[in-house]
Every structure is written in C-alpha cells, then in structure tokens.
Amino acid sequence: MVLKSSFTMLVVATLAVFGTYTPQAEAHSWADCIDWKFNKSGGKQDWSDKGGKCVGYARRFPLHKAFGSLDSADPSRHYQQVHKNPNSALPCSNRKAGVEPGSDETRANPPSKAYGGKYGQMTVTSVGDTLCVRWPAKNHAKKNEPNGMVQINLSKAKDSKDISQQELLKNTIAHLPYKNCNPGSNEDRRACGGCFKVPVRAKGTYLLQWRWMLNKNEWYTSCADIQIK
C-alpha cells in the first residue's frame, strides 16, 4: 500500500514538472530585410526595429508580420533546399520543392509585381552602395552554436529569369557572420545582420540570394530582386 502510494505521488510529481515545461523550439532563418537603413551612421549597429528601418525586402515579403514570426506561418518563410545535392536545388522557393518548401519566392513578370501593396518594396541601389541585410537568429546565435557564414550571391544576368544555384555560387559577393546579432535574452527573435558593397553591374534588375548552412548540406535561402540604377 505504501509502495503504491509512493508510486502515485511520483507519477503526479513527474506530470506536474512536464506540465509546466515549455520546450524551446529550434527554428530556421531567412532574410527579413535586404536593404536595412540604420538610424545613426557609424558606431554600434542596431538591427532592432528601434535601430533602423527596412526599405528593401525579399520577394513577396509580408509587411504585417512581426519580426522573426514567419517560421509558424503557412507556408513558413524558411525554404530548405534538398539534402542530397543542395547545389542543384532551386535557388528560390516555389512552395513545392525542397525539404521545407517555404513561401513563394518565384520571379514575377515583371519583377516589380512581387513588391508593393501588402508586400515590401524592392531594393533600389547603385554600384558601390552599402547594402545591409537583416535576419532573425531563430535560436542559432547562442554561444554553443557555430558561427556559420551567410553567403550573398548576386547574379550577373541582367533583367533575366533566375539562374541556377550552381551559377549563383560562381557569383558569391560576400560572406557575413551569422551570429552578428543584437544582444538579448530572446534567442529566437534576436535581430542579426551584415553589410556589403554592391559590386560592378550594369543598370538593371538582378537576382540576389541570401544563403545559410545550418548543418552539413542543410541550406536555407531567401531571394530578392535588386534594381541597380
């Protein structure tokens, strides 16, 4: 009788512990902003909404969603390329391909149709300008997480359809540390980012790809059109 009572108390106590435990989900990132403008020039970078504003977005990026919240959207924002050969996968999500299909980032015709209204504006820039790209940490900027590099790939094909992932990898223009983030206790929605110079291109519209590897052959991408004037 004593053993049965003790066992019952142990089960109740165990259920109580698990009932109050909320697991911290591991999520995957995406480019939140392609052209982030800081409120102050120079000094410490502040990637939070208080530290600046976005003036250029990824394709069909919804303006009404809170920063870092789109991993639970339907479809989610993150697009994971196939594991077996990610370098032969689609560079931009079509909502069908990949391990995690992601949102629709196919090229519009004309590209401007993927921007404005309920979506963010297209990035407009010039050769030599500095573009700053922002992304949410999504629990991957902790001390025990590797500081992988974000690839910024920029097509040389002006005013054309999207080139392949293999061709994009021939046009990597920057590597940005993933863990370049604001400090804070909210590991899921810490704001991160990095900046680079726009390389020489003729005037026109080009495909820009944000690409990040979480684990071996586990790549996530976001795509944007940028207009170089």
UniProtKB/TrEMBL annotation:
UniProt feature coiled coil, ranges: none
Going by the UniProt record, its keywords in alphabetical order are: Signal
Give the residue ranges for region: Disordered. 72-119
Q: Where is the composition biased (Polar residues)?
A: 78-91
Endpoints of the signal sequence = 1-27
**Is this entry keyworded Thylakoid?**
no
> What highest taxon heads this organism's lineage?
Eukaryota
State what protein this is by name: Chitin-binding type-4 domain-containing protein
